[in-house]
UniProtKB/TrEMBL annotation:
Catalytic activity: uridine(54) in tRNA + (6R)-5,10-methylene-5,6,7,8-tetrahydrofolate + NADH + H(+) = 5-methyluridine(54) in tRNA + (6S)-5,6,7,8-tetrahydrofolate + NAD(+); uridine(54) in tRNA + (6R)-5,10-methylene-5,6,7,8-tetrahydrofolate + NADPH + H(+) = 5-methyluridine(54) in tRNA + (6S)-5,6,7,8-tetrahydrofolate + NADP(+)
Similarity field: Belongs to the MnmG family. TrmFO subfamily.
Role this protein plays: Catalyzes the folate-dependent formation of 5-methyl-uridine at position 54 (M-5-U54) in all tRNAs.
Protein name, UniProt field: Methylenetetrahydrofolate--tRNA-(uracil-5-)-methyltransferase TrmFO
Any matching Pfam family: GIDA
Superkingdom of source: Bacteria
Protein source organism: Ruegeria alba
Enzyme class: transferase
């Protein structure tokens, strides 16, 4: 019993942590409160359910930090990446997945693993004995959140993360919309036509902004603060920052040509990305929102091509909780006050599916090694994994700590390379080459420990 690893939370991080530890020969119990205890954002009891976007973002492992993280997770035999690759959808250079089969595959593989068991129960306390990983994510239950707060002696940090709406493809007017990835990116025709585009002229854009600003919004509960992660701002919050903000963000018209009016440059473009393998569902890219449901329907139907749209899911907003990890966690992701407990995933202050799963991968391997009496080498800071774990466990400024996606700004500079935009391509390639070498060496050394 003392050698068993308990993982609380069956999302991206918890699922990956369980897989990695089990593959290292450790018996694992996943404590997932769903479906016994639900959340407003989840719709199933599946492990690794995707509740927001269906995209793992760029899959470019030479010029993009998240694509590099994909590469490192694949090299480590990651379950999340394996399932994502198995249910990949065309997305113009990004890794988008068919969300339901993806989660079903992760769930089935973990249930089938001889060293993994799954129990549907809510854990509300921080245990003093045994080996534990808490990967409860942004929707940590209030009871467990209170227990974490009582243990750490710090105010829980929180931000609000909004969910983008999903449209039934058959209700989109294709006489106004068209299929094209920005700059025709992608190696196949399917990739080059992975996004559905709805154009706006200046008057339509201005009317849309007016409607957005005037729409009824979700009210916050007393004592809650609307502190958003900048990578996932609700569209109405972006609009409040300036009328041109959306046109230079998710609605930018660059790299696209409307075949219905090839000589007319759109003033703004709303993009939708395929959300399932059948191509029957599309999510509106970057359109996270806290508008009330009735307002969403009215506002989104002002978009050319969506006038008669039907929605499979409207947007929503939920509270995301994360630790001030630089002050609370050690370099092994252990809670300093209770080193029998590790944290992983979004609750540690990483942002995004891939980053969450990556921290689960590391937590699972670190916990397995500790149980087996092995000491793993330090995760190399020059890898994407190392850059992230270094950031959350000490590299970030604790006073201003906020959720962070993986990015090349977290990497140590490569000597002798030119800075600025002109040197970016060579610099990014140098980062990824160095990271792959460092990560491969770490995996080999870790396997031999």
């Amino acid at each position: 019993m003392t050698d068993r690893l308990h993982i609380v939370g069956g999302g991206m991080a918890g699922s990956e942590a369980a897989w990695q530890a089990a593959q290292q020969g450790i018996d694992v119990v996943i404590h997932e409160m769903r479906p016994t205890v639900g959340t407003f954002a989840h719709q199933t009891g599946n492990l690794a359910e995707m509740v927001c976007s269906n995209s793992f973002r760029s899959d470019d492992d030479e010029q993009n930090a998240v694509g590099l993280l994909h590469w490192e997770m694949r090299a480590a035999g990651g379950l999340i990446m394996s399932a994502a690759d198995a249910h990949r959808l065309p997305a113009g250079g990004a890794l988008a997945v068919d969300r339901d089969p993806f989660a079903e595959t992760v769930t089935a593989r973990l249930h089938a693993h001889p060293r993994v068991s799954v129990t549907a129960e809510e854990v509300t306390e921080l245990p003093r004995d045994g080996h534990w990983i808490f990967a409860t994510g942004p929707l940590t239950s209030p009871a467990l959140g209170a227990a974490i707060q009582a243990e750490t002696g710090a105010e829980a940090l929180a931000f609000f993360d909004a969910i983008a709406p999903i449209v039934y493809a058959e209700t989109i007017d294709m006489s106004r919309a068209w299929m094209q990835s920005r700059y025709d990116k992608g190696e196949t025709e399917e990739e080059r036509t992975a996004y559905l585009n709805c154009p706006m002229d200046r008057d339509q854009y201005e009317a849309f902004i007016d409607a957005l600003l005037a729409a009824d919004k979700t009210e916050f509960h007393e004592g809650e603060t609307a502190t958003y992660f900048d990578g996932c701002l609700p569209i109405e919050v972006m609009a409040e920052r300036g009328r041109e903000t959306l046109r230079h963000g998710p609605m930018k018209p660059v790299g696209l040509t409307n075949p219905h009016q090839p000589d007319v440059k759109p003033h703004a473009v709303v993009q939708l990305r395929r959300d399932n393998a059948l191509g029957t569902l599309y999510n509106i890219v970057g359109f996270q929102t806290k508008m009330k449901y009735g307002a969403q329907t009215a506002v989104f139907k002002t978009i050319p091509g969506l006038e008669e749209a039907s929605f499979a899911r409207l947007g929503g907003i939920h509270r995301n909780t994360f630790l001030n990890s630089p002050t609370l966690l050690d370099a092994q992701m252990r809670l300093k006050s209770r080193p029998n407990i590790r944290f992983a995933g979004q609750i540690t202050g990483v942002e995004g599916y891939v980053e969450s799963a990556a921290m689960g991968l590391l937590a699972g391997r670190l916990a397995a090694a500790e149980i087996q009496g092995r000491t793993l080498p330090e995760v190399p800071q020059d890898s994407a994994m190392g850059a992230l774990i270094h950031h959350i466990t000490g590299g970030a400024e604790a006073k201003t700590f906020q959720p962070m996606n993986v990015n090349f700004g977290l990497f140590r500079p490569v000597d002798g390379l030119k800075g600025g935009r002109r040197g970016r391509k060579d610099r990014y390639k140098a980062y990824t080459d160095r990271a792959k070498e460092a990560w491969s060496a770490w995996l080999t050394e870790a396997e031999n420990k």
